[in-house]
Amino acid sequence: MCDVEETEPSGTLRDRLIAAGHLIPLGVRGVYGRSGAMEHVIERFEACVTAAGADQRADVVRLPPIFSRAHYARINHIHNFPDLLGSIHAFTGDERAHRGMSARFMAGEDWTTDLVPAETMLIPAACYPLYPTLTGALPDGGRVVDLRSFVFRHDPSDDPARMQIFRQREYVRLGSAHQAHSHRDAWLERAEGLLAALGLPVERVVANDPFFGRGGRLAKATQREQALKWELVVPVASDDSPTAVASCNLHLDYFGLAFDITAADGAAAHTACVGFGLERVALALFRHHGLDPERWPAEVRDRLEQGAA
Amino acid sequence: MCDVEETEPSGTLRDRLIAAGHLIPLGVRGVYGRSGAMEHVIERFEACVTAAGADQRADVVRLPPIFSRAHYARINHIHNFPDLLGSIHAFTGDERAHRGMSARFMAGEDWTTDLVPAETMLIPAACYPLYPTLTGALPDGGRVVDLRSFVFRHDPSDDPARMQIFRQREYVRLGSAHQAHSHRDAWLERAEGLLAALGLPVERVVANDPFFGRGGRLAKATQREQALKWELVVPVASDDSPTAVASCNLHLDYFGLAFDITAADGAAAHTACVGFGLERVALALFRHHGLDPERWPAEVRDRLEQGAA
User: Fold this and answer.
1) B62 and B106 share a domain?
2) Nearest CB partner across the interface for B89, out of A87, A91, A133
3) Number of CB pairs < 8 Å for A and B?
4) B111 part of a folded domain
5) A89, A92, A113: which to substitute to probe chain B, counting the most B Cβ within 10 Å?
6) What pLDDT is attached to residue A182?
7) Using the beta-carbon criterion (under 8 Å), do B26 and A73 form an inter-chain contact?
8) How many domains does chain B contain in total?
9) Average pLDDT over every residue of B153-178
10) If you count DSSP H runs as helices and E runs as strands, how many of each does chain B have, helices first?
11) Does residue B6 form part of some domain?
């Protein structure tokens, strides 16, 4: 599968990606610029995803990396993942307040004490900002929405696959419990097939989100017991703990209740999503096929350039 | 020029863009999702820009929407544009601190008092994060870098062309004063030609950045006197005050000095950039050719689909 990289120790991949110019360190752990070649891989992978989802007749929505603080307050992220959040703060003072802030800045003191919480937060997952836009009754048959967004997780790490800011591509299903379940199961098959066709040694595993603290242990166990989250994992920086490059998630009626979205029968809508971690997919391809996409196996290059199967 | 929209009052364009689904309100002024059709327009416009810049043999770098707070502290943004900044704050406390934050959140109090400034800020302009990556001597002949990034400006507004978060596409030149000047002048011509070829009534004007406060008046005047900033403006939301859809900027040796970048002669590098506001270009096209790209004039559609001239 991976003659070049398989025997490299963990950690080296990051150095090699940087040396090859694919990741450009920006002076903060887990924050990188991307090379044009890496972007091209991501664009081509996205075309494959679009082709795989052509039958969904999804509404395409492209979201910016920030969303409403008031909407953030309607989900449980602050309880479950406080260590990952990104809150945006702004300066709304007058010239006098500005002189004070500038003076603290020049003195090397904490200059942020004058800032106030802005109307926005960084997006923790691509589908969060969508739900508040769909409050009300879904059309008959529900909806499928095709999303892409940068998402933020305050998780400084030297693992190149644990970036603080990266893109997710998602297909979100909103409708009945049955529709959500079918979506999740169908995309688990599709996503696994797509990743395998790109020569990646993908495995599916039941997983849990990184709920915070001791209180999070129960949530993790419950999520696993109910098999709400499946991940498709591939070795990237480490052979021992492979990286999730995609996940297929059932949310039950959590978002339907939180944002008053109702299905055809009047009950709270159920939702499900498949999400691809676009940078992680590109890193997995570099890890398994080498750092020069021109030299990747012909069948992988053909598959990427075709988009459709 | 614009039979459909020309006589509409200011403000209506936003409502029409929302009704057509091109802008999806996310509950905060100036923060929107984008339709698939709008994204397609932006992708095709970017292909035109890429074709216009093919001779530049630019290094392609794609930047995430956040960058280093330490790098932010090495430029004068906090002095010049404090009202526009976006500072990212995170929670790094333990479970006890989390209980306190959760309690304040549940009580409807300010729950952000426990947050601390994270290592990052939102990017105010696409080229800022680039310069710290180029500290040292430039190669002979300098460099041209092709950038795209989301940028943030805390400027809540109902003008659809004044978004808080939007994408800039840039070509940045680093080298001698002469090279920077030539780049700026050449791209002013190219960008104007490209926008005019897309049927936009573009004009070039000397401009200034929105320096803060009374102290900013001198900076504005100086920037105009030296003609450091040219904008290409097109009526978008208002006929009376047209919107800058692109700008061509000379930075002199400001970034070279701030980040120790030296040109071939050993002196601080001069830099210049052309930047396109991608959402603004799309909005200008909707404004002047109508809300359905399928019904745009054939020559505009052809030009967009070709990419190259």
Assistant:
1) no
2) A87
3) 208
4) yes
5) A89
6) 98
7) no
8) 2
9) 97
10) 10, 14
11) no
